[in-house]
Design goal:
The structure holds 2 protein chains of 2 kinds.
Chain A: E1 2-7, H1 15-29, E2 33-38, H2 52-55, H3 67-75, E3 79-85, H4 93-100, E4 106-113, E5 116-121, E6 128-134, H5 141-157, E7 162-167, H6 172-182
Parallel strand pairs in A: 1-2, 1-3, 3-6, 6-7
Antiparallel strand pairs in A: 4-5
Chain B: E1 4-8, H1 17-31, E2 38-41, H2 45-54, E3 60-66, H3 74-81, H4 84-91, E4 98-104, H5 114-126, E5 131-137, H6 142-145, H7 152-168, H8 173-180, H9 187-196, H10 204-212
Parallel strand pairs in B: 1-2, 1-3, 3-4, 4-5
Helix pairs in contact in B: 1-7
Classes of the chains: A alpha/beta, B alpha/beta.
Chain lengths: ~180, ~230
């Protein structure tokens, strides 16, 4: 299985970073092709809502940055694992900025899907979504639930589904096993 | 007179749909007896820093934003993270301003914005702030297509909400419900829309832009994997 991890941890030295490394190591050891993108090291200019990726250079951001790397790794994966500590009740701004630049993975045309308005697919395949969250002392079960709800909506708009949410208070071994089962 | 900090969280800045809507809420706020609001566009670096500094010194903050990939834009999350010290202030008994929000999206139904609304309500609680409510409105991109005069009803409703914020300290539930419009389409409407979506006229806006930019032939380009085919 091809797994792309978008790592939204801003710091190099953190408990979540160590935890995520251990999950990734275990996934790779069980014969998955794991690509980890540490977003803190990637040049992202951020989405400015110009819709150039829809109407000027279809499918590609008009900005000269590394967002193509993220889009390519996402579309090429079976599972897109969104990994981030919870801060102020949600995943980090770093991860959200990366997600904002993924809008070009869809086509601008509207369509009805499941009774809701969504955008048309641009690709024949989209990865399943998974969430790996680092819970701290300032987050609670409600934060996890709300965070999951927002990313589940994105998964749905990306022609996909959220297949699991895991929180770092469980062992890396247990979480890696669960990912292998659901993905 | 109460003070209002108007924060435009749109990455498009001053010319955004969010700002067009916020400006009308601000007009209502003044009509309701509030003082002239101070406005910052978070997309401008200098404004961003000033908006962080100004948070603590105002009575009410109104933060507006477009829905980006089903939550707040990364820019707005960056601003929220800059408010971490204010959580500690609230825990130690300090006071944070009343918080109100505006979320506008390109989707016509309100349901797409509801998870973000839940987050914003929790954010107000996290900061120990009084929650004034969240204005949810779909079809935001249509504001770019139509002249301002064509949206008189919408502007009037936004002014009423601004007035309510000034007079009562929160948005009225009925007015929020009215402005949100359709929550979810009925099965019949969805079926009709599904048929209508196949008509080129329905996709006119994007098609026009693609053609104008000479990108029409490449509209189904799929640079990172196998393309979807109908």
């Amino acid at each position: 299985m091809r797994i792309t991890i978008l790592n939204g941890e801003p710091g190099v030295a953190s408990a979540f970073e160590d935890y995520l490394s251990e999950v990734a190591r275990r996934l790779a050891a069980s014969r998955n092709a794991v690509t980890t993108l540490n977003l803190r090291d990637i040049d992202l200019k951020g989405c400015s809502g110009c819709f150039g990726c829809w109407v000027k250079t279809p499918g590609e951001c008009v900005k000269r940055d590394d967002s193509a790397q993220i889009c390519r790794a996402a579309i090429g994966a079976d599972l897109l694992l969104l990994a981030s500590p919870i801060t102020m009740g949600f995943t980090t701004a770093l991860l959200k900025r990366a997600a904002d630049q993924m809008i070009g993975l869809l086509h601008p045309d509207f369509m009805i899907e499941g009774g809701e308005v969504h955008h048309r697919a641009r690709y024949s395949h989209y990865p399943k979504f998974g969430l790996l969250l680092g819970a701290g002392s300032d987050s609670d079960a409600e934060d996890i639930e709300i965070t999951t709800a927002m990313w589940t909506r994105m998964a749905r708009n990306m022609k996909s589904s959220m297949v699991f949410t895991a929180v770092s208070d469980r062992s890396a071994k247990e979480v890696a096993n669960e990912i292998a089962l659901v993905a | 007179m109460k003070s209002l900090l108007l924060l435009n969280g749109s990455p498009r800045g001053e010319r955004s749909n969010s700002m067009k809507m916020l400006a009308r809420v601000a007009e209502g706020w003044e009509r309701g007896g509030g003082s002239r609001p101070e406005t910052f566009h978070l997309a401008r670096k200098a404004d961003f820093d000033r908006a962080v500094a100004a948070f603590a010194g105002t009575d009410v903050v109104l933060l507006g934003m477009p829905l980006y990939t089903d939550s707040m834009p990364g820019l707005v999350k960056t601003y929220i993270e800059a408010l971490v010290p204010r959580v500690a202030v609230a825990r130690e008994g300090g006071v944070n301003p009343t918080l109100g929000f505006l979320v506008q999206s390109g989707f016509p139904e309100a349901l797409h914005s509801r998870p973000l609304e839940r987050y914003l309500e929790k954010l107000a609680r996290r900061l120990g702030s009084t929650y004034a409510g969240t204005i949810v409105r779909g079809g935001g991109e249509s504001l770019q297509m139509m002249p301002d005069e064509a949206n008189k009803k919408l502007w009037a409703r936004l002014r009423v909400l601004g007035e309510q914020l000034a007079r009562a300290g929160r948005f009225g539930e009925e007015e929020l419900k009215t402005i949100a419009g359709t929550e979810r389409f009925s099965a019949l409407t969805a079926a009709l829309l599904s048929l209508a979506a196949k008509l080129p006229v329905v996709q006119f806006y994007w098609n026009m832009k693609l053609k104008k930019n000479g990108a029409w032939e490449r509209r189904f380009a799929a640079p990172y994997g196998p393309a979807f085919r109908l």
